[in-house]
Amino acid sequence: SVPLSFFGGIGGASKCGILVKGSNYLEALANTETVIFDKTGTLTRGTFSVTAVHPESGLDAEQLLAYAALAEYYSDHPISLSLKAACKAELDPARVSDVEEIAGHGVCASIDGKRVCAGNSRLMDRQHIAFQPCGLPGTIVHVTVDGVYAGHILIADQPKEDAKDAIADLKAGGVRKTVMLTGDAQATAEAVASEVGVDEYHAELLPADKVEWMERLLADKSPGGKVAFVGDGINDAPVLTRADIGIAMGALGSDAAIEAADIVLMDDKPSKIATAMRVSRKTLRIVK
Ligand code: ADP
Ligand code: MG
């Protein structure tokens, strides 16, 4: 049977906007020794803004942005949302067909009968498209039209306001290691990692690579220690499921992530993890 005060603990957490799906997760939280974070939408706001548009191959900036936004029409990725927000032209879904979203790469779709792809350098490599590296900080979305390089769009994301304090709070609360796993480029990952202060980070990962890192970190833990993963569920649902404690961002996160998670942070604030750990420890002291 579940001791009554566990309900108190779960209720107390829910008043702080932390949804705990069972008393066993409350107990696991109190023993968390490693916290792994996804980057985009978890440690960063996930709301990118377009900072530069560099068309090539005879397109103008508006045309390049419209191609990218149309290719991304059906995607929920934070990058996709920013491209659609930046595009002033009306986006007509009737122009879009045969959409293929490739996790950790980007999207391809047919627009007015032309094959348009928008994504990172890995997507370009996959299609054997050569391009000039841009060298500016930020996330780069390259665009091709019918296999010809059409330019790139630079977008910037910001760490969440409470991300740095959230990491410091976890360390102060006894978490041994904080890790950031991301599919984004090395330079962007390094900048975010040093800004928020995680102990280690790994970049340019595909969803399967994130699971591999999770396995490694699970194998590393001490007996009784728990590993938590915090993500928004976009490209990280498999790793969210594999963790001892899967924590999802509830506001920006996908429905699948909320479903798969053990704990949901309703307001997407990473600082709520340390709060949840405090609630769990208090509850355990009452129970024992
Ligand atoms: P993170 O691990 O930072 O949350 P993701 O795994 O979601 O990032 O994506 C990794 C990278 O894959 C992104 O930084 C981006 O370069 C590329 N990517 C993924 N989805 C899209 C998309 N819909 N449009 C453009 N690029 C994308
Ligand atoms: Mg993500």
Automatic annotation (TrEMBL):
It comes from the Bacteria. It is found in: Cell membrane. Belongs to the cation transport ATPase (P-type) (TC 3.A.3) family. Type IB subfamily. This is Cd(2+)-exporting ATPase. It comes from Oscillibacter hominis. The chain holds residues 314 to 601 of 653 of the full protein.
